[in-house]
Specification:
Helix content: 10-25%
Distance between the termini: 28 Å
Radius of gyration: 16 Å
CATH architecture: Roll
Order of helices and strands: HHEHEEEEEEH
CATH topology: SH3 type barrels
CATH class: Mainly Beta
Number of domains: 1
Strand order of the largest sheet: 2-1-7-3-4-5-6
Oligomer: single chain
Shape: globular
Structural class: alpha+beta
């Protein structure tokens, strides 16, 4: 992650919360499942809508589902089936921090992303 030159916590926090989107995207990196993607030299990648993830920490530990939304502003993701019930009975999506999830299946519908993992696989062989 990009770090501001200053070591003052106040300035670090300011940079973190006012970070440009092209840099904030890198704060949403998620570990790849070591059982399925352990042979790749890449250990983490940016999570995208459509990836299948598994929650490994927190109250929803063990829950697996497809990523429905990724919020750069909140630095969180929502997963299919992970909801909270409001007092009026309405179900709302539960936002989960990327450090608490693992990607179990990559969405390779984007040709650029598919090419990236294809080239990574070739380098690892």
């Amino acid at each position: 992650m990009v770090r501001v030159q200053s070591s003052h916590p106040r300035k670090q926090r300011k940079f973190h919360f006012n970070m440009p989107k092209h840099l904030a995207r890198h704060t949403l990196t998620v570990r790849l499942d070591p059982e399925k993607y352990g042979n790749l030299p890449v250990k983490r990648t940016v999570v995208r809508k459509g990836d299948v993830v598994k929650v490994v920490r927190g109250g929803l530990k063990g829950h697996e589902g497809k990523v429905l939304q990724v919020s750069l502003k909140k630095r969180r993701v929502t997963i299919e089936g992970a909801t909270l019930q409001k007092p009026d009975g309405k179900l709302v999506p539960r936002w989960i921090h990327p450090s608490n999830i693992v990607i179990t299946k990559l969405d390779l519908s984007d040709p650029l992303r598919k090419e990236k993992f294809k080239s990574v696989k070739e380098e690892g062989e």
